[in-house]
Write a structure and sequence with these properties.
single chain; about 325 residues; alpha/beta; Rossmann fold; 7-stranded mixed β-sheet; two-stranded antiparallel ribbon; 11 helices; globular
Length: about 325
Amino acid sequence: MINTPASIIPPGFASHALQLLQRVQHGISPVELVYAAHERWPFRPGHAVHTRPSLHISVLDASFNPPTLAHLALANSFPPLSHQRSLATSAPAESYDARMLLLSVRNADKVLKPGDATFVQRLEMMRLLSHDMRSIETSESSGVSFPQMSDNVAVAIIDEPTFVGKSTVLLHFLKKRLAAVVESSSSPNSTSINRDASYLFPSPKLTFLLGSDTLIRLFSPRYYPSEQVMVQMLRTFLSPDKEDCRVVCAYRNVSADKTFQETQDTIMEVACEFMTSDRVVFIDIGAEEQNYSSSEVRAKVAARDGEWKQLVTDVIANFIIRGDIYSGSAREE
């Protein structure tokens, strides 16, 4: 039996999401969690919080207009082997400790257009996507099944157009959240961690998941004040002794994307420094999935081409149909 959107999204979610969205848009809060799998996220449910030096959190930052099977494949991906060796994550089966689906109310390239899904509709679809993230994950290297860390997922909103800006804001937010969770989890009979100078709060380690087409916004000088400033900011963003973020990039079929082709040489020249140090790693999300795009879904819906349903999950297809989204003229991605 296929779950319907109404059976997955609880009553009041849309109004709750709208309130948090307005807080971010009005500058009251730089980032808000619209949904979290449990109150102690990003810690794993049932795990002690005082013995964790760090938490490895994947961040899938996208427009989600709408989420496709490519988004799902990337959200469910494992850390690359080169990252696993250095992450020392405590999660089983080479997984991330926690996962985040992130929507920015400002985008370096895209603006909200007539016919697009609203931000609240996108947040609802992100909630549906979190439900679709598989509950059991099988390690491709070992063939052994383990509890899936995708169950430890959150949906968030941020007001930052660039990845380097998002990392700074998210790290600040997550450090405060981790400290608050540790404080609230402390037993009244235990020694206060505020009086224990040797105690260090767990440190968030972020891996941004993106498609190769999105590399334009990360490594192209036109998104920064200057090329020199870009390199400095990227080194802060990706340096292990600074923000210590990583980038996992999915191969995408962008051969027809003229803008990407024109900037590819420049992008790869800048990215080379970080690729050789394994701070930026490419992965394969599947021969079919790498061809899927949100713009194709929107165009097919507008053209009344039913094949669009094969590009998204069933619950998201039902949500689009029930909400009559994208039924107007097709829009550019």
